[in-house]
Amino acid sequence: MQTLDIEAIKEILPHRYPFLFVDRVIEMEPGVRCIGIKNVSGNEEFFQGHFPARMIMPGVLLIEAMAQVAGIMILAKDEHRGKLAYIGTVDNAKFRKPVVPGDVLKIETKLLRARGNNGRVECVVRVDDQPVAEAIIMFALVRV
């Protein structure tokens, strides 16, 4: 099992503040599964415009956080270094509970299928072990 700090994550993903939504990886089997952590702070820029009186993390950013953890899982494999993982489709997305400042997101991803430069990943976001969002994300790998 691998773990990654923010500096190791930045070596794999091209994302940077304010669009990097993974703080650390606590478990990973490259190309198989990955668990990432995102600490949600009231200082996040998106809270200034997304229901500022009742701060809620936008669902599209939860999808992006899932895709980033999936990207780490895929791009950590040696044969995929130097590529980008693009979202192709998002299927069966469900948002079960609002994510608010102070929440710690545990983002779990599992590879369902990989064929060539395409694949499908099952993703679940949990807060306090309760699911708050989930989706199946199809990705395409592109050489930079």
Describe this structure in words.
By secondary structure, the protein is α+β, with helices and mostly antiparallel strands. The chain has one domain (6-143): Thiol Ester Dehydrase, Chain A (Roll), CATH 3.10.129. Helices cover 17% and strands 43% of the residues. It has two helices and six strands. The chain has helices at residues 6-12, 59-75, and strands spanning 24-29, 33-39, 83-95, 104-115, 118-127, 130-143. Strands 1-2-4-5-6-3 form a six-stranded antiparallel sheet, covered by helices on one side. A hairpin with a 2-residue loop joins strand 5 and strand 6. The longest helix is centred in the middle third of the chain and has 17 residues, at 59-75. The chain is globular and about 45 Å long. The two termini are 28 Å apart. The model has no long low-confidence stretch (mean pLDDT 96).
This entry's quaternary arrangement is single chain
Summing up helix and strand content along with how strands pair, one would put the structural category as alpha+beta
Provide the low-confidence segments as ranges.
none
Strand content: 35-45%
Number of strands: 6
Helix residue percentage: 10-25%
User: Would you state the CATH class?
Assistant: Alpha Beta
As a whole number of angstroms, the C-alpha radius of gyration is 14 Å
CATH fold assignment: Thiol Ester Dehydrase, Chain A
Q: What composes the largest sheet?
A: 6 strands, antiparallel
Distance between the termini: 28 Å
CATH architecture: Roll
* Secondary-structure element string: HEEHEEEE
Strand order of the largest sheet: 1-2-4-5-6-3
Determine the number of helices (DSSP H or I, runs of at least 4 residues).
Answer: 2
Number of domains: 1
Shape: globular
Kindly report the name of the CATH homologous superfamily: Hotdog Thioesterase
